[in-house]
Write a structure and sequence with these properties.
Elements: H1 3-17, H2 23-48, H3 50-53, E1 67-70, E2 73-79, E3 124-127, E4 144-151, E5 160-166, E6 172-177, E7 180-186, E8 192-196, E9 206-213, E10 238-244, E11 248-255, H4 261-267, E12 270-291, E13 296-313, E14 327-333, E15 336-342, E16 347-350, E17 353-356, E18 359-360, E19 363-368, E20 371-372, E21 377-378, H5 382-394, E22 399-402, H6 410-418, E23 421-425, H7 437-454, E24 460-467, H8 473-489, E25 494-500, E26 502-504, E27 507-510, E28 521-524, E29 542-544, E30 550-554, H9 573-590, E31 595-598, E32 606-607, E33 620-621, H10 634-650
Helix pairs in contact: 1-2, 5-6, 7-8, 9-10
The protein binds (2S,3S,4S,5R)-3,4,5-trihydroxy-6-oxo-oxane-2-carboxylic acid (GCB).
Length: 652
């Protein structure tokens, strides 16, 4: 940040204010000076240093399919609760070359030179990884931590550029390379990247620093209040991405949504539609698309920075839960390839039913937090995804709700290969500042980043724009804007949000006005845990205002693994089992015809600062079907049995 320029500018204005004037003149002058000062300040921020104002919009997708160099591994850190590395003793932002700025490398030249910071062992931290789980001193820490590592520049030809890519940093990241700021990003669960100017890269020992802050704020997404652990740090993969100077940055390829898929099957003519977005405008370039197994080889001329395409194929093995077929696809710009594995399927709502490839499907779901409870840490790897999906499969589930924020990319990718449907959402959770237009922009940005990253994953069928947001006109305006955005960004999927129960004449009545906008009406209900006992399910009546598919996006009860007692005893495994039995009986016997699926809360116990019962919780939300040691609770088997029956009935 060019803070010294701003500082000098402010200083000059202040001096002008000191000139002697009559009161009126000085008032008018002051007004103009203030106006000029404000305008100049904004101009300086936006023109002199546009990177500072916000993150880039140009996310590189599918980094797995590109030439990359991993920057995972051991980094160094400094815990900086007073942000000393960023502000000087007058709390002014440090200047670019300030030796006390933690983004600068301090090399003592003579004996008398001194410093008050440095990056070295034993202050080591693993990336990716939350900081909370890596050292007891970090467990409850919310604040700033500086991360640092060196890297050598990979082999780059003269026609290539290098980008620095982060899978996610929670929550705010400021990135510096060799003393220069590359940019910043806010939002703890979505990726971002910055182009590294070639002149900034040295062959050896590039000095990379990231200032990470995970403090919670009322005007951020999520806000201060959540029922999950605020794990801080560089929580996902970091890599250098080496790309040709002109390259395919994003693309989308899928069955055209407007075709009747049953007819396409009968006529053996499937319509495939898509687009390609380049990093910059080109003239007379060539884009090609190859799907060898489908004998597709198409070439297009492109001028500008994007291209739309559409073609037919005769035969296609549709992706589904029992046939997770992925095709190898290669896109090329002027011969430079990017490859992916993509499944073709159609997801739609037809009246009150959800249909996958034209056939009704019931979603046997389960909610998951991005956490490995046995190690009390965020999940971040392929191995972690395999653990979580292994348990999902054992449950006979065919769907996961990835709560309450976009999970790492290994999750939807693995879901693609296993045939598990995915609901993914942004952390618009509970008490967001709905009246604040800046907050809406932040939510829109996170929604866009989520969709941009995952829109080629066949498994992802639902974009969710939020969870349990309190009904009001302002909130409905806010939330419906997000629904519309999601539909505009991606018309090939369903959009939803987890709503809360309303009541009408003794009935549980789903009439949240947001239901007008969503494709499916999803509801969190805890009948028998937060209200009444589980046998209240025996008489509960349910109705929805909307003739749309009705989905239970949460239901659950707490139990401490290994604690056994009578079923009336709260937090016993027996209570939780009873809860599931009554819920399932209610689903079977008394739920409306538009009931289209359920994703109970939750696969495994997870850390939460809100859960402080000293006997049963100790900082854990105990609604997991699996406890924090990995042991299955009794309720696991109840849900497993229900899903097994549904699976056998459906034939898959
Ligand atoms: C909910 C929330 C979820 C909580 C859960 C609970 O409705 O959506 O984030 O963790 O209830 O356990 O109370």
């Amino acid at each position: 940040m060019d803070s010294h320029i701003l500082y000098q500018f402010n200083f000059k204005i202040k001096r002008m204010n000191l000139i002697n004037q009559t009161p009126e003149v000085s008032k008018t002058c002051r007004f103009f000076i203030r106006a000029i000062k404000n305008a100049a300040f904004i101009l300086l921020l936006t023109i002199l240093n546009p990177l500072y104002t916000n993150a880039q919009d140009d996310l590189i997708i599918n980094t797995q399919g590109r030439k990359t160099v991993s920057l995972n591994g051991t980094w160094h850190y400094i815990i900086d609760p007073y942000e000393t590395g960023f502000y000087d003793y007058r709390l002014r932002e440090r200047r670019k070359n300030d030796g006390g700025a933690y983004w600068n490398k301090f090399v003592p030249k003579k004996k008398t030179d001194w410093t008050e910071h440095g990056y070295q062992a034993p202050y080591n931290i693993q990336v990716p990884g939350d900081w909370n789980s890596q050292d007891p001193q970090f467990l409850y820490y919310e604040g700033t931590v500086w991360y640092q590592r060196n890297f050598d520049t990979p082999d780059v030809t003269s026609g290539e550029d290098v980008y620095l890519y982060f899978g996610a940093v929670n929550y705010e990241a400021h990135v510096y390379l060799n003393g220069k700021k590359l940019g910043m990003h806010k939002g703890g669960f979505t990726p971002f990247n910055f182009k590294i100017p070639a002149a900034l890269l040295k062959d050896k020992d590039n000095f990379l620093v990231v200032r990470v802050n995970n403090e919670r704020h009322q005007e951020e997404i999520p806000t201060v209040n959540t029922d999950w652990w605020n794990y801080g740090g560089i929580t996902r993969d970091v890599k250098l991405v080496v790309v040709p100077q002109e390259f395919i940055q994003q693309y989308h390829i899928q069955l055209a949504q407007d075709q009747d898929i049953i007819k396409s099957q009968q006529l053996k003519k499937y319509d495939i539609k898509g687009w390609v977005k380049l990093n910059e405008a080109v003239t007379d370039a060539e884009v090609s698309i190859e799907i060898p197994e489908l004998k597709v080889k198409r070439q297009y001329k492109v001028t500008g920075d994007s291209l739309k395409f559409e073609f037919d194929v005769k035969k296609i093995s549709l992706w589904s839960t029992d046939n997770p077929k992925l095709y190898d696809i290669t896109l090329k710009l002027n011969g430079n390839p990017i490859s992916d594995k993509i499944g073709f399927r159609k997801i739609e709502v037809d009246g009150e039913q959800i249909k996958l490839n034209g056939k009704q499907i019931f979603l046997r779901g389960i909610c998951i937090h991005e956490e490995i409870p046995q190690e009390v840490r965020r999940a971040h790897s392929k191995k972690d995804a395999a653990q979580l999906f292994g348990q999902v499969k054992e449950l006979h589930a065919n769907m996961v709700r990835l709560a309450h924020y976009p999970h790492n990319e290994y999750m939807p990718r693995m879901a693609d290969s296993l045939g598990i449907l995915v609901w993914t959402e942004i952390p618009v959770y509970w008490t967001i500042d709905f009246g604040n237009p800046e907050v809406l922009k932040k939510a829109q940005k996170q929604l866009k980043e989520m969709i941009v990253r995952d829109r080629n994953r066949a498994s992802v069928i639902i974009w969710s724009v939020g969870n349990e947001t309190p009904v009001s006109e302002t909130r409905t305006q806010f939330m419906s804007t997000l629904v519309k955005d999601a539909k505009k960004l991606d018309p090939t999927r369903l959009v939803s949000a987890a709503l809360e129960v309303g009541y009408n004449e003794g009935k549980n009545y789903v009439d949240d006005p947001l239901g007008e906008y969503t494709d499916i009406v999803s509801l969190n209900e805890y009948l028998g845990w937060y209200g009444g006992l589980p046998d209240a399910c025996k008489t509960a009546q349910w109705e929805t205002k909307y003739n749309k598919p009705f989905f239970i996006s949460e239901t659950g009860a707490g139990a401490k693994g290994g604690f056994h007692d009578e079923k009336e005893m709260r937090f016993s495994e027996e209570y939780q089992k009873w809860f599931y039995e009554e819920q399932i009986a209610m689903f079977k016997e008394r739920f409306p015809d538009n009931f289209s699926g359920v994703s109970p809360w939750i696969l495994a116990d997870f850390r939460s600062p809100r859960r402080n019962n000293p006997d049963y919780q100790e900082g854990w939300n105990r609604k997991g079907l699996i406890d924090n040691k990995g042991n299955k609770k009794l309720a696991f088997y109840v849900l497993q049995q229900y899903y097994k029956e549904l699976k056998e009935k459906a034939g898959h």
